[in-house]
Amino acid sequence: MGQGAAFFDLDKTVIAKSSALAFGRPFYRDGLITRRDVVKAAYAQLMFRIGGADEQTMARMRDYVAELCKGWRVEQVRQIIAETLHDLINPYVYAEAAALIEEHQAAGRDVVLVSSSGEEMVRPIGEQLGVSDVIATRMEVEDGRYTGVVDFYAAGPHKVSAVQELAAGRGYDLASSYAYSDSVTDAPLLELVGHPSAVNPDRGLRKLAVENGWPILEFRNPIPLARRLRERPAVPIAAAAVGVGVGVAIGIAWYGRRRGRTRTSS
Q1: For 234-248, what is each residue's pLDDT tens digit?
Q2: Is-catalytic flag, 9?
Q3: What distance in Å separates the CA atoms of residue 45 and residue 258, rounded to the nearest whole number?
Q4: Prediction pTM value
Q5: For 213-230, what is each residue's pLDDT tens digit?
């Protein structure tokens, strides 16, 4: 059998916030999204965390991503991320997650970030962590701008398919592999590997983890990169017994769904 790998969800698993929503302010500042988008997304992200998302909602998110990003200049997006990554993401990386990534790498396992956020933001975050392999949402580009077509949406079953394809190509033994996520929407990914763990799980995932006897990890120490490098590996990993504008799109799609239900019931 081949060597196992370690697959990490990004938001609320490796970093203590939504990677896409973190860039909401500079995206607004540079005119890519409106203030209304920012406010809706902030509220709706909370609702998403509480209630999760079904397949129909996930499809709505994908379609909104396409419309939201249509016409954006790729270089502008990359420049915004490069300029703000240090302030918006580095201070929020969980020390426990960084230590765990290093442990897997020391054991000879490849580490892969698997996120529904855009590849333009997931890849540089991975580079900050010493992770070169990512599975993330990809948008079609033509003449340096996003066309409004989603080439690959890294959510739900698409995550699983991408992980299976990568494992087949590299000879990973999934039974010997590890996966970490905070969301019940990643249950199929966790079930795919021999060593799943729930990290800061939402209510649905916590219930599933208890039923299946999966480890539940509580990450509580986001600290800046420079401090992490000075102090490693002092931060313990506490275990309990018992998704380019994709994050914004998740929020707005959920908000629209909630508003629609409210109007129906009125």
Answers
A1: 444 433 323 344 444
A2: yes
A3: 12
A4: 0.79
A5: 999 999 999 977 555 555
Domain 5-265 part of CATH 3.40.50.1000: yes
* Short-list 162, 176, 163, CA closest to 104: 176
Predicted pLDDT at 25: 80
Catalytic residue (choose from 9, 37, 182, 186): 9
Alpha helices in the chain (DSSP H): 19-22, 24-29, 35-51, 55-69, 74-88, 95-106, 119-128, 157-170, 187-192, 203-212, 225-231, 246-265
What tokens appear for 37 in the block? Answer: 């988008």
Secondary structure of residue 151 in the 3-state scheme: strand
Summarised one tens digit per residue, pLDDT across range 45-79 is 555 555 555 566 666 667 776 777 889 999 999 99
Q: CB of 16 within 8 A of CB of 222?
A: yes
Question: Could you tell me which residues come within 8 angstroms of residue 181 by beta carbon, excluding any fewer than 6 positions away?
Answer: 8, 9, 13, 189, 190, 198, 199, 205
11 catalytic, yes or no? yes
Query: Count of CB atoms within 10 A of residue 25's CB?
Result: 14
159, amino acid identity: K
Gyration radius of the chain's alpha carbons: 18
Q: How do 145-152 and 133-142 pair as beta strands? A: antiparallel
